[in-house]
Every structure is written in C-alpha cells, then in structure tokens.
Amino acid sequence: MPIALYALTAGAFGIGVTEFVIMGLLLNVGADFGVSIAAAGLLISGYALGVVVGAPLMTTATARWPRKTVLLVLMAIFTIGNAACALAPSYGALMAARVLTSFAHGTFFGVGSVVATGLVPRERRASAIAVMFTGLTVANILGVPFGTWLGQHFGWRASFWAVTVIGALAFLVIAWFVPKIAAPKDAGDWRADLRALARRPVLLGLLTTVLGWVGVFGVFTYIAPLLTEVTGFAEGAVSPILLIFGGGLVVGNLLGGKLADRRVVPTVLGSLLALSVVLGLMTFALHSHWLAIVFVALLGAAAFATVAPLQLWVMEKASGAGESLASSFNIAAFNLGNAIGAWLGGFVIDHGPGLAAVPWVAALVPLAGVGVALLSLRLDRRDARLQVATNCETPAL
368, 210 in Cβ contact below 8 A? Predict the structure, then answer.
C-alpha cells in the first residue's frame, strides 16, 4: 500500500478519537458546566447529526476543488474545531464547536475513500478503504482510552488539546505525502450529483448501511450496562473488555476489505448475515463471562467487516459524477445508523422487554439490511434484462 494511504489513516485516527473520546468524559463535562449527564450526552448526538448534515454540504461545496486541497481544508476545520472545544466557555459553545468539528467528518471519509481507491489497482480498492478506516479502529483501541485517561487526570480540556495536536500532525502528514489530485472533470454540477445520488441502487445501498449500523450501535451504546448488569462483570472490567472489542474492529475491518476485493456483493451479504448471527447469539452468550468476552470481540469483527464492503458498494453504484457525494452520504448513513441504534436500544430498555433483550432485537435490523440488499440486486437484474430486451427490439438505423 502506498504511504499516502497511511497519511489518510492518520487523519482518520484523529477524527475517530474526537468522535468517541467524549463518551468517557461526560461526567467531567457535566460537572464543569453544571448540566445533567443526559444533556452532556447530547454532545454525542449533536456530533452525529452534524456529520449527517455536514457530509453533503461540505462535499457539494468543495466538489470543484482538487482532492488534496479538500482533505487539507477538512483537517484544518477539524483542528480549529477541537481547539474551540478546548477553549469553550460554556456548554452551548462546546456544542457549537463539536458540530463545527463534525462537518469535517463525513466529507473526509467520503472524499478520502475516493482518493484511497485511486491510489491502488482496481482489485485492491476495498483493502485501500479498509486501511484508511484502520485509523478509526486504532482510535478506539488506543486513542480513546488514552484521551479518557488524560481528561480524567488533567481535565477534559486536555483531551481536546491533545486531539488538536493530532489534527495538526495529520494536516502536515497529508500535505507531505498525499499527491496532488485534480477534481473530477465532471465535478461541480451539484444537480447531476444529486440525480446520481437519487438513483434507486444508491438509495437502497445507503439504506442497507443504515440498517446494518442500527444493529451495531443498538448494542454497543449499552455495552457497559449489558456487561455489568446482565453478565455480572465489575465496572473495572469493562475497559479491558472494550480493548478486546477494539482488536476485533481491526481484524474485521481488514478481513472485510480483503474479501470485498474478491467479490463485493457476497461480502456485503455475508458480513451483514454474520453481524446478525453474532448479535442474536450474544443474547445467550452474555450469561457466561467467557462467552461474553468472546462475543464482544466477535461483535467488533462483524461490525467493521461490513464497513469497507458497504462503502465500496455504494461508491460503485454511484460511479462517476456522484461518487464523492455518495461516498460522503454513506458515511452520514453510518452515523444515522448510530443515532437510530442508540434510540432503539433505549426504547427496548425503557418500553420493551428490557436490557437483556437488546441484542436479539438489534439482530433483526441488519437482517432487514440483507433483505434490502437482496431486493436491490433483484431489481438491478430486472433492469438489466429490460435493457437487453429494449436494445434487441430497437431497429438498427
């Protein structure tokens, strides 16, 4: 893999840390600003919704720019946004700074995926996407625990200053190693991009992504109470178990990329089925300490095995003018799935069968994603047959 690809990985690492480190600092932030834990938790929701809104806006606004320039501007926004978080004088200012930072997220991963696939041969495109997303998985293993420790010992602002430094370093690495890449020749017509995005195959691909990650975050959002209240682990055991989850993320991410390099569609279907099976069996595994640890690792692997295949699948369905926009929208789809999944898990706990039932309810959602993917494939085949029939019936001129 070219070194430029690892420069993109560095940017992905920084973005991954800033997205998730706030989870371990909610108590500190809430105490500092005098707000409830629920209000502090909205800093996570605000970031996710900022990604959903910012991805299409930033991608459209920068469509005519050279790809490297886009990446550098996004890392600059990311760095400035984290510095603003560290300096925020109030809860509202911190929320605004988080939303500003989130605007870089979707477009960085969207445009970065397009750049990554252009740096390698066609048969290694999914692996290239997976390598870039490895920065996100490593952020969960190393960056988030360290950022949480830093915030708990030196104040939550220290965590955001550390991420600011990471952003500045990632900016320099991208500036040094990523080659100059011109904007696509057909870029700039946002109407054409939206028409490409509105095609049925692209929309069904985006829906598949959302459904897959509703299942992931339906469980992951509540992994701590599941491990303590259902399995019976002490609270101090949760962090080490989450390191195992992070290891599963890395393995699943790289494995999903390699399999998708061979055959994209079977990997999309297989990874979603595997995710559904893991979530379903986790319902029973949580009643055993050792099985719970094994299935936390499997959940990480199954979850991120879907990322590169889903990203590449949507990009292929929108190849051409709308590729960058569709790629960014798919990142927004992941985050929309995160938000819906957290809501679904909470609904099951408060108004449904309870905490122990969250995994099997979550398992049904990626299974619905498999159904949507199969429907998309069936409709694509039908359209292909109709196109062939139309061509055969059209008289030659």
Answer: no
Distance CA 142, CA 122 (A): 31
- Provide the whole-model pTM: 0.78
Distance CA 381, CA 384 (A): 5
Neighbours of 54 (CB within 10 A): 27
User: Does 188-396 match 1-185 at the fold level?
Assistant: yes
Nearest to 81 by CA among 47, 41, 107: 47
Q: pLDDT category, 38, cuts 50, 70, 90?
A: low
- The full set of domain ranges for the chain reads 1-185, 188-396
Domain range 188-396, CATH architecture: Up-down Bundle (1.20)
Residue burial 66-93, b: 16+ Cβ < 10 Å; e: rest: ebbebbbbbbebbbbbbbbbbebeebee
At residue 51 the predicted structure's pLDDT band, cuts being 50, 70 and 90, is confident
In sequence order, the 6+-apart residues with CB closer than 8 A to the CB of 113 are: 129, 132, 311, 315, 327
Q: pLDDT value at position 269?
A: 93
Q: In the predicted model, what is the mean pLDDT of the chain?
A: 84
Mean pLDDT, to the nearest integer, of 13-26? 80
154-210, pLDDT tens digit by residue?
A: 888 999 999 999 899 989 988 888 888 766 665 556 666 667 677 888 888 889 999
| Maximum average pLDDT range among 120-129, 131-140, 323-332, 371-380 | 371-380
Domain 1-185 is classified in which CATH homologous superfamily? MFS general substrate transporter like domains (1.20.1250.20)
